[in-house]
Design brief:
mainly alpha, globular
Length: 294
């Protein structure tokens, strides 16, 4: 049964800071569990330890804070997070189609984001950010170097299922609703949340495409009024990346395929832009009839 949690009467900014208090508390507890449960030195050398580390991080940093915050807001996490309505199947199919057809557009934006260069006065900052990118790349290499079927299953579980659920509960389910309470504007709430969502990954050279992905997920939440839609779409997006890496990572084609420049891939990008635009228009124009029902 729903009840009014003590956070519900808080102003938007108070809720905002309380959510981040839970976030940083989760980091502390997650770090403590990691130190107790795994050999930290193996994080950079063992795919198993890397997966465990990411799993613990997602659960303590995003999942538990989101569930705690939503319960304290309304007494029912399912109601606050909009997980209790019936998902419109047609809306879900259109949303999944959207995240698939938009991939070439996101990939080409990601390619040019990676080519960005800072002015000479900020080269030290660029060097630090590129070192951070290399660290993230090494983690990816460690996960995807495991070509066993169990490696694929565990990568799908951690990178797709757990990350898709935990991040959507935190960012769209909690943060976006807080930003809406603060700004009273759905577009501001969607884009500010998308920017924070991208920034929290600490990968500047993948910042812009991740903002775009976050905005797509945010608008799907706004239009469907059902968090399961962005959760499923986010999970499928991540799963597609895991399966792609499982097939191509370590092959001679991998670097060529991931270097998705406009000049070499124009015949993929133009249809992607056209189909993405059509799907967004269809979803937007039919959002009222496709919306969640109780």
């Amino acid at each position: 049964m729903d009840n009014n949690g003590f956070l519900r009467g808080m102003r938007g900014w108070s809720q905002f800071f309380f959510l981040w208090f839970l976030f940083f508390t989760g980091i502390l507890f997650g770090s403590f569990i990691l130190v107790l449960g795994v050999d930290v030195q193996e994080t950079d050398t063992s795919a198993r330890v890397m997966r465990m580390s990411q799993m613990i991080s997602q659960v303590f940093v995003f999942l538990i804070p989101a569930l705690a915050f939503s319960f304290l807001c309304q007494g029912s996490s399912k109601t606050y997070l909009k997980l209790d309505g019936k998902t419109n199947l047609l809306f879900l199919i259109l949303a999944i189609a959207l995240i698939l057809v938009i991939q070439p557009l996101i990939d080409v934006i990601a390619y040019y984001n990676q080519q960005m260069s800072f002015p000479d006065s900020m080269k030290f900052l660029e060097e630090k950010m590129r070192n951070d990118e290399q660290s993230a790349k090494k983690a990816v290499e460690l996960l995807f170097s495991d070509k066993s079927i169990f490696g694929l299953i565990f990568n799908l579980l951690v990178v797709a299922v757990v990350a898709g659920l935990a991040e959507e509960l935190f960012f769209r389910g909690c943060l976006q609703q807080i930003m809406l309470k603060i700004s009273k504007n759905e577009h501001i709430a969607v884009w500010v949340t998308a920017i924070i969502f991208s920034a929290i990954h600490f990968q500047f050279f993948g910042f812009i495409p991740r903002v775009l992905l976050g905005a797509v997920l945010g608008y799907l939440f706004v239009w469907s009024r059902n968090l399961w839609v962005p959760v499923i779409v986010h999970t499928i997006n991540n799963a597609a990346g895991v399966i792609f890496a499982y097939i191509y990572y370590g092959t001679s084609d991998y670097e060529q395929i991931t270097a998705f420049s406009l000049e070499k891939n124009i015949w993929f990008i133009v249809p992607s832009v056209i189909l993405t635009s059509i799907l967004i228009i269809v979803i937007f124009n039919n959002r009222k009839t496709l919306k969640t029902t109780k």
